[in-house]
Description:
Layout: H1 4-11, H2 37-54, H3 56-62, H4 65-80, H5 101-114, H6 120-131, H7 137-149, H8 154-168, H9 189-192, H10 224-230, E1 242-246, E2 249-253, H11 255-259, H12 263-270, E3 280-282, H13 290-302, H14 310-322, H15 326-338, H16 343-355, H17 359-371, H18 380-387, H19 389-398, H20 403-416, H21 421-433, H22 437-453, H23 457-469, H24 476-485, H25 489-502, H26 507-514, H27 519-532, H28 537-549, H29 553-564, H30 570-582, H31 586-599, H32 605-608, E4 610-611, H33 612-620, H34 628-640, H35 644-657, H36 662-674, H37 678-691, H38 695-708, H39 712-725, H40 729-742, H41 746-761, H42 766-782, H43 786-798, H44 804-814, H45 818-831, H46 836-842, H47 848-861, H48 867-878, H49 882-895, H50 899-911, H51 915-928, H52 933-948
Parallel strand pairs: 1-3
Antiparallel strand pairs: 1-2
Helix pairs in contact: 1-4, 2-3, 2-4, 5-6, 5-51, 6-7, 7-8, 8-17, 13-14, 14-15, 15-17, 16-17, 18-19, 18-21, 20-21, 21-22, 22-23, 23-24, 24-25, 25-26, 26-27, 28-29, 29-30, 30-31, 31-33, 31-35, 34-35, 35-36, 36-37, 37-38, 38-39, 38-40, 39-40, 40-41, 41-42, 42-43, 43-44, 44-45, 45-46, 46-47, ...
Amino acid sequence: MQHNIFTTMRSLKMMEGCKGTQVYALNQSIDGGGGGVGEKFLQNLLSKNSIRSRSNSNFQAVQSKDEVNSVVLAEAFASYGLPKTDQLEPQIEFCLKPMNFVETLGDVHRRMEGCAQFDKSRMYLEQCAIFRGLPDPKLFRRCLMSARLHAVDVHSKVVLSAWLRFERREDELIGVSAMDCCGRSMECPGSALVAGYNPESATDPCMCDRGMRKDEDTEIYMDEECSTSLSRGDEEDEDFDMSFCIGDDEIRCRRFNIASLSRPFEAMLYGSFIDSRREKINFSKNEISAKGMKAAEMFSRTKSVDSFDPDIVLELLSLANKFCCDGMKSVCDAYLASLVFDMDTAMLLFEYGLEGNAYLLVAACLQVFLRELPNSMHNPNVSRFFCSSEGKDRLAYIGHASFLLYYFLSQSAMEDDLKSNTTVMLLERMGECASEGWQKQLAFHQLGCVMLERKEYKDAQKWFEAAVEAGHVYSLVGIARSKYKRGHMYKAYKLMNSLVSDYTPSGWMYQERSMYCQGKEKTMDLSTATELDPTLSYPYKYRAVSMAEENRLGRAIAEINRILGFKISPDCLELRAWFLIVLEDYEGALRDVRALLTLNPRYMMFHGKLQGEHLVEILSHNVQPCSQADCWMQLYDRWSSVDDIGSLAVVHHMLANDPGKSLLRFRQSLLLLRLNSHKAAMRSLREARNQATSEHERLVYEGWILYDTGYREEAIAKAEESISIQRSFEAFFLKAYVLSETSPDSESSLYVIQLLEEALRCPSDGLRKGQALSNLASVYVDVDKLDNAIDCYTNALNIKHTRAHQGLARVYHLKDQRKLAYDEMTKLIEKAKYNASAYEKRSEYCDREMAKSDLGMATKLDPLRTYPYRYRAAVLMDDHKETEAIAELTKAISFKPDLQVLHLRAAFHDSMGDLTSAIRDCEAALCLDSRHADTLELYQKVQQRAKEQLPT
């Protein structure tokens, strides 16, 4: 019965607009003018449902509503095209992907340790490029901060400061302008314009008042000295010994002062030229006004331009360039740079800066453009300049064209519109600026990826080949894909087959090769890909769609559930929603569509042909409507059963009913963080901040944003400011949470307990109070107050905070009550929908065989959890199976280079006497975290042993 609809969809005869050689082809087009047949059909469904709601009794006399909706959805599927295995493709990664990630990390760390201080910023940028492909965005952001910390020149500081701000997306915060200072000198627009190397001061609070400037700063005004100087009478003429004549005006000057401005002026006024003997010099042909020359005379005495109109300063800048007046040029440059605060001013002064070779002024304008990304690139004048080779050359002449600049611009452009001409041209400029091998690899590989997306396969192959020639072996995947798209399937297969043969096999190699073979060979390659790297989504999707094509929908859903159990992505959620619609499980399908729209609000369903929100509206007609109160009850149920996807869907529904509810946006961000969707979580948190109706609430959300981006002290300050306005649960909770992460000592723990107790006295809902009780219990455990902890965990469980079972189990274990601990974790396993962590934790409270069973289940449910690999490796080492132990850790490292796993493998290598491998793993671990104390200690010990073994 469950497959009837699927069969119906495969045999439906649609109207002529849907006919073609492949009705279900993935890329079937839709008529542009009035929308495709499927689009029109779905729109008609909405209007029909509206009519049915008004005349339901008449409609039911003809046909049941459910039957009609089923047929409508089936026809919509046929119109848009069902997913087909021969149309699925794995995504080619856009980042640098070394063939041996561990060796690459180790090499970067060694070069970092050995390079000069002034080169560290460049090394950290390389590290950024390597970390860009890792799932944890904090690693990339931390490297970016380190690059800024060690930056020396103004250009690098401007670009890196803007990039740090871009990563935090402050432009999305209402009331925050591009040039606002966040309080840290590292991101301060004023500090970025100060040259010099001082990494210690970069973390200091910024005292900048840049955002407090008034419009009168740019107005013309004269100080007392200026006024008296320009209105002197004949009584002071004896101070002057020469004049410059410009038209009818005569500007009296002191010869010595003017000569001191530059060597050319000195030669003109004191050299062997005729002018050096003249008292009056005709200066009319030097393109400076009388007013400008008067200002030059004043500058020769005061060495300041602060009292001049900006137009006059621009004249002085031109004069300084013409006569090589370096001091005057520097002062004019700095003054004009200080006037740049917004896009209008930057656009006005940018060309003057380029013409006048004013390094700081161009830097200031550049800073505004970069801090306004991506919107600034929508200005045709800005985009045309940065995209053109001429613009790049003009920037290079003044010292502001760099790989760093175009790397940032191109990443912003790719996020904004991957296939645009702007993206292509910026990547081309990035390639032109590339000087080191890794820079060329990255630029050429990303150009290949963009061209592939644009379906310009010949150009894509050319750029991928350039990347391979530069040393990026992974780009062979792009070459193979380009050949395949151009009809050379066998050549693509041969290329990937040679890659598998020549290098240590990786999951992505088998995944790519599977595209170019059929039958059992394809199935085996996909199985091997999953075995080597279970995080690759393509094999799961292919197997699921293959099962669906064979009408095994239950198996298809089970297959896609395997990856959704530990890695949430919109494409996998969409696929499951597809299958659920076929099974007429519209409630489940609606859940998945709502969840994926939380991850990506602009997601287009049905192969990019239908807005996700539109499908939500359609599916909503097929499920029981629920009120906001019903939603709250559902949220409690989903939350207590640790169903994060279900919780996301409920919150999405609640926000549709009440879109301005900041508390719901905040709850959404917490769920997204639990699902490792950091970018979406930060977006929800920024929306929560923007929608906050009170100042104290807004401060809390700003505090969480600061904490999540590494500014812990500032987060605490926001919490304290919020508390000073109004005592609230969230403000106390934020302060307690950040303090517990920052200061783990016993004194701080007691203070955290007080803060959490204050939080619990404030009004809040049970979901948040359950979390606070659990956190409070955890701190009680840290200070050895186990009975208090039991009380807190029990209270948390009473309000359905199911995760408290894990904390309670820990307390029982500390009390040496292992049976009770085991039972608590069993309860959590029974209640939780996603329970890999519960199996992992329960393994600590049972014997070795049961522990191995639980950890095996944890790995099956979530292969990204590294503790099971470490445990199994440790057991193997205890059994003197060193090779198997190393292999167990290597398996995890191959798809997740985790710090703890690398450290453990280094220790194993050390114990086996393999000092070279131990050093390599230590260096890779230290590249991930250079301050990891245990690894540093091991590294020093192994290095010392290696030195002792060297022949004397």
